[in-house]
Amino acid sequence: MAKGPFPVFGANGAIGYAATHNVSGPAVVVGRVGSYCGSLRYCDSAAWVTDNALICWAKNVQETRYWYYALHTCGLNDHRAGSGQPLLNQRILRDIRVRAVPARERLRIAEFLGAVDDKIAANQRVIEAAEALMVVSIEPISDHVPLSTLARRTTAFLNPEGFDDTVAHFSLPAFDDGAKPRIVNAESIRSAKFLLTQPCVLVAKLNPRIPRIWNVVRLPAEMALASTEFVALRPIGTDSSALWAAVRHDDVVATLQRHVAGTTGSRQRVHPRDLMNVRVPDVRRLTHAQSRAIASLGSLCDERRTESIRLATFRDGLLPLLMSGTVRVEDGPAKVSHPM
Prior knowledge:
35% of the residues lie in helices and 21% in strands. It is of the alpha+beta class. It folds into two domains: 6-99, Adenine-n6-DNA-methyltransferase TaqI, Chain A, domain 2, CATH 3.90.220.20; 141-290, DNA methylase specificity domains (Adenine-n6-DNA-methyltransferase TaqI, Chain A, domain 2, Alpha-Beta Complex), CATH 3.90.220.20. A five-stranded mixed sheet has the order 9-12-15-10-11. A four-stranded antiparallel sheet has the order 8-16-13-14. Strands 2-1-5 form a three-stranded mixed sheet, with no helix packed on it. Strand 18 (328-329) and strand 19 (336-337) form a beta hairpin. The longest helix has 37 residues, at 288-324. The radius of gyration is 22 Å and the shape is globular.
């Protein structure tokens, strides 16, 4: 896909950028096919929308963002048709009823919830800039060493009967959904996991063309468990942020991709032995000041992700109350209230 200024939306959100567009915002993009059908994205600018998604425009263009939030209360995925390849179509969507507040309240709701989502988006931009700077900071290092020189694999397995009642699960879906572990009941986990006891770097073995490399700079209060789809790396002679930068370097990612050349799809897996043998920049050569700067950037990313999770939880809890009229956004400084 060509690179350009216009985001490309597929069945589950943005998937890249294009040089041309076929939609002008504001609009709501609805995932049309697959397990993510019914997913929603607000598009406030020109974009390219693939055949895997549908486009919705509000009759009153100023209310577009309000209807984006209103659709979140409809459980669109529950209305999908088909079993082998779930899908939504225009006929299904036209028959779905959406509960709406009076028109005079819609813009206030959209502005209030939109401010929360804008802050989450700003946090993501900070994270992307900080991570890019972490990788750039190690570019001057000319010495390369096998990854096994800088890290040791965590191989401590824990079976479900040894889990605490509540655990923090570091999984592939959790990484894809903001790179924060999911706090879940242990009963929901059926297989053995890696037990994490210190900051580390998790490298997904699956499909290295999508580099899922997780910098775990701080363990949660709950028992920390990692999916066996990751290789868990404990840093040696450095910290997790510098180790992350070394593994996330473009040359290292390209090397891992070459190791699975010739295989396809879900069969593309990096063998832990190949990972430990790959040569990475020797981040022990960083000065103390450089190491501290990278560590600070790693902590900044973790803080912004934590804030975004908190904001998303607040938004998701408030959204149905606003849409039902149980609480309202008042005029003046942004605040919500219960109607009498």
